[in-house]
Write a structure and sequence with these properties.
Helix content is about 35%, strand content about 20%. With about 300 residues, it is an alpha/beta fold. One of its GO terms (molecular function) is hydrolase activity.
Length: about 300
């Protein structure tokens, strides 16, 4: 069923859809540079950026690479919960800089230490490079917090592709004892790389993120057409166990990924996992990056996260 979009997006979507139509008319092809630039433009719609007592850019140093992170704390002397943040962007786009306002809100509203991870992106670094980076930070995050007081439990959070990373790591935690996740927070997550959810058809055009672009993202990410590999990488088809972490999930009614997020929430619940699901029916994919247009919905999302973290 196609979603009914909020009138708050009327002007924004009219312009976006006009630009998409013009690009198709002129046979403009997707490239990593174009899509990264287009996503970065959404930063102009996040003008509300809370002040923060502590922000530091650090590096997690591994034998073969370094992983940049940005750390936020509203009160670095207080032992606050830790929230590990994996940004969205189709595994190809997005950055710590673009998501800076979101991480500031998370730290401020939820009163937690946020570690935002600059993981490697496709196509330069295809699957599973980005997941590997996030896994290393998850295992070794305490090394980055020497000058920040914190609690010794960890929640992971991600939107879209970041949600895919969260759920992939949660799935891996069932068999890898190095990976400890107390809770996961998923915002319009991508959990099914097979592209079979009904909302990919019903919501696949007209709502900013289009199904053709999702398919192209995944082609760059996997650089493979092996359906067994793609299905095995999809958290929706992974092992479901009561041992998976307590989960907070948000879906958007006008999102092509809506139905797979709902299916994942139902599968966790059926396995006995503690799940809290909120649906923002008039919202589109990436609404958290459109804060100035839908401030009430964004702040409601932050408040749900704060309550879940408390």
């Amino acid at each position: 069923m196609r979603g009914t979009v909020s009138p708050k997006f009327t002007d924004f979507l009219a312009l976006a859809n006009s630009n998409i139509a013009l690009a198709k008319q002129n046979n403009v092809q997707f490239t990593p540079t174009i899509l990264r630039q287009n996503l970065d433009k959404l930063g102009a719609l996040m003008s509300d950026s809370p002040a923060m007592s502590y922000i530091a850019d650090k590096m997690l140093t591994l034998p073969d690479r370094t992983i940049p992170v940005r750390i936020y704390s509203p009160a670095p002397d207080k032992p606050l919960p830790v929230l590990l943040h994996f940004h969205g962007g189709g595994h190809m786009c997005g950055s710590v800089v673009l998501y800076d306002p979101i991480c500031r809100h998370l730290a401020s509203v939820a009163q937690c230490v946020v570690i935002s991870v600059e993981y490697r992106l496709a196509p330069e670094y295809p699957y599973p490079a980005g997941i590997d980076d996030c896994e290393q930070v998850l295992i070794r995050y305490a090394e980055l917090l020497g000058d920040v007081n914190h609690q010794h439990n960890v929640t992971i959070i991600g939107d879209s592709a970041g949600g895919a990373i969260c759920t992939s790591l949660s799935m891996k935690s069932l068999t890898d004892k190095r990976i400890n996740i107390d809770q996961q927070i998923l915002i319009y997550p991508s959990v099914d790389y097979t592209l079979n959810s009904p909302s990919l058809d019903s919501n696949g055009t007209g709502f900013l993120l289009e199904t053709t672009r999702i398919k192209w993202y995944f082609e760059q990410y996997f650089q493979s057409t092996d359906l067994d590999v793609i299905k095995q990488a999809s958290p929706l088809f992974g092992a479901m166990s009561v041992k998976l972490p307590k989960t907070l999930i948000f879906t958007a009614g006008c999102d092509p990924l809506r139905d797979e997020g709902i299916a994942y929430a139902k599968a966790l619940t059926a396995a006995g996992v503690d799940v809290e699901h909120h649906s923002f029916d008039g919202m589109i994919h990436a609404y958290m990056l459109l804060h100035d247009l839908v401030k009430d919905e964004c702040m409601a999302t932050y408040q749900h996260i704060a309550k879940f973290m408390a």
